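[agent] plan:
  1. take the single chain provided in the ticket
  2. run structure prediction with default settings
  3. attach structure tokens to the ticket
  4. add a short note for the reviewer (M.T.)
[agent] executing step 1
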Amino acid sequence: LYESVPNSKEEESEEEPKLKYERLSNGVTEILQKDAASCMTVHDKFLALGTHYGKVYLLDVQGNITQKFDVSPVKINQISLDESGEHMGVCSEDGKVQVFGLYSGEEFHETFDCPIKIIAVHPHFVRSSCKQFVTGGKKLLLFERSWMNRWKSSVLHEGEGNIRSVKWRGHLIAWANNMGVKIFDITSKQRITNVPRDDISLRPDMYPCSLCWKDAVTLIIGWGTSVKICSVKERHASEMRDLPSRYVEIVSQFETEFYISGLAPLCDQLVVLSYVKEISEKTEQEYCARPRLDIIQPLPETCEEISSDALTVRGFQENECRDYRLEYSEGESLFYIVSPRDVVVAKERDQDDHIDWLLEKKKYEEALMAAAISQRNIKRHKILDIGLAYINHLMERGDYDIAARKCQKILGKNSALWEYEVYKFKEIGQLKAISPYLPRGDPVLKPLIYEMILHEFLESDYEGFATLIREWPGDLYNNSVIVQAVRDHLKKDSQNKTLLKTLADLYTYDKNYGNALEIYLTLRHKDVFQLIHKHNLFSSIKDKIVLLMDFDSEKAVDMLLDNEDKISIKKVVEELEDRPELQHVYLHKLFKRDHHKGQRYHEKQISLYAEYDRPNLLPFLRDSTHCPLEKALEICQQRNFVEETVYLLSRMGNSRSALKMIMEELHDVDKAIEFAKEQDDGELWEDLILYSIDKPPFITGLLNNIGTHVDPILLIHRIKEGMEIPNLRDSLVKILQDYNLQILLREGCKKILVADSLSLLKKMHRTQMKGVLVDEENICESCLSPVLPSDAAKPFSVVVFHCRHMFHKECLPVPSMNSAAQFCNICSAKNRGPGSAILEMKK
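[agent] step 2 finished; step 3 output follows
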């Protein structure tokens, strides 16, 4: 029916059409088979079609005939309807004019002596005050009904040829004659403008003027190839004089490529029906081409073409410019292209049409997005259908991964569709492509679907198979079926680590932890410890401790020690009896955690440390309180472990032998001195001096270090005359410096002591000078009766000690002859000091 016309040769046909087209059929088809359309008028509710045989048909919007009027035996020139759609005006080529109500009978009927080309009824003809219409032949007549229901006519214009076109909007009437376009204000009875015709060379009867009102004050004029947009404006009061109250301003004017047959507004754009003539390349003769319907954007002096469609109307080859008309319905943006043999309806494309075009261009992604955005407005499309078509398109194109990925969004939770698509992927051998995107929770597909994909991977991709087993929950498929399939493959490749690991995972899902553990240990897999902990498999590893230790001794020992309640220390030690190096690792960590837990094995550990870990033997001997010293000494002496032997000898009380070993075996004077300092035994110092007296290096070491423990004079007196001692002067200077430092320290300490003693003495004196409160609540510490008598008039005598104990004087024992001082009996008995008396109260 139509074909989009590109703006240029380079432009591709990827631009979406703005309008869609369909023929008005049903009754219209029947009419035009016997007759030809001459004019048509559009109302929001119905259509009125006039024919060359003088018939007027009322049609519904689908083209069905609802009413028929035999107006004249000749061509109907124009039909006019008021806004209500209740009154219609008709004029014909034989001069007949009828204005009548569709539901109220005839209003006006007259035959003129010349053809009447145009008629327009008042837009509000239904009102009694607006019973007006105009007709045009050689002159423009205004008919008005008077108060006596009689019609009177008045000439609005004549003398410039036939009236060819008229449009009435509100209070304004626009018409065209041979000279141009006039606008008449029906209210003021004034003609307010004259827009002259540009191309006077064109015959006005062959290339008639097209008029349409965009709104109440904007008139669009199309004539020949020229378009003018005129705006009716109010004249300022100061400019009135004898001029009309309104004037017209041309706001836009431009030329088109072809002859204009009709105009209609579309928002701020224009719809233009053009009559096209082209020259044949073969005969070089001019011929009538298909008419074009263009959407253009008016600019002040030019226009921009938005879209252009060539329409294949019936009989376009014989039509002239005057044979085409463009009518429109303002409420629904419907455009009717009327030709003698055809009526085509153009309408704005809706979202369904937009999706149709996207699907036609295979722009499925955009179609899905458009459908999702306008889900409530689309009527002919479903998002799911578009999505399925998209998936099919991708599969046909070979984009299997993209198609599989789109399944997630498009198929959603529809398990039946999922299964259907999976089988489609199977048919083309692309099950691997869809496997990452299969639903795993909501919904869950039949186990057979998952098993089918697992078998596909098992046949060709062990790594992919292992990945799916790790990622898919074990309840998606029949575990025993897959286990058997893996076993069958292991018969061909028994050492395949990937298959073994996957089989272990399958055993784990099946809670067959024993078999899984054996495989993990065989593979030395890092997850073996996690498996043991997670599923509490300690009873299964009691005979596999050596394997675990061989795999990762650190993790194995930590696990065994953390779970002593499940695998006892005794059991572990027994299992490791044939592997003493592993036994040592276990017992060493046990000792580090708790020095007492493995005390029964401390004797064994001496040999283990000596054999496998000597650096930790001495720390063990120092920290252990349970190892037998004699056994340890025997082992250390056998292996000639000097440091350990020295420590054991000193710990057993044989310090002199230990010192001798240091001097004779290690020849380390610093260590010997350090040892002597630790023991703090004068005899050891004497032995050290005697051993060192003939060894100058040792003497130097002693002179540098014994100054704070032994009087250096003892050593200096024993040095033989003439013996050369390295760094003797420096050593003597150091001795003197150390001595001076000791003297200074002593003097400093003495000064501090004297100052502290004086301060404390003053504090004690101040304290003892303070009074002590004695009242009726205090008691005698001897007789336990109140210290003060109840009768204050009686004489009394009370002794109060600095310790705050109080006595009646008569309750205290009489001082002995040897010491006249009196002391608190309580504090003296408890060795708290004498607590001498500080106060004696008498009355």
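[agent] step 4 note for reviewer: The first strand starts at residue 2 and ends at 4.
[agent] ticket updated
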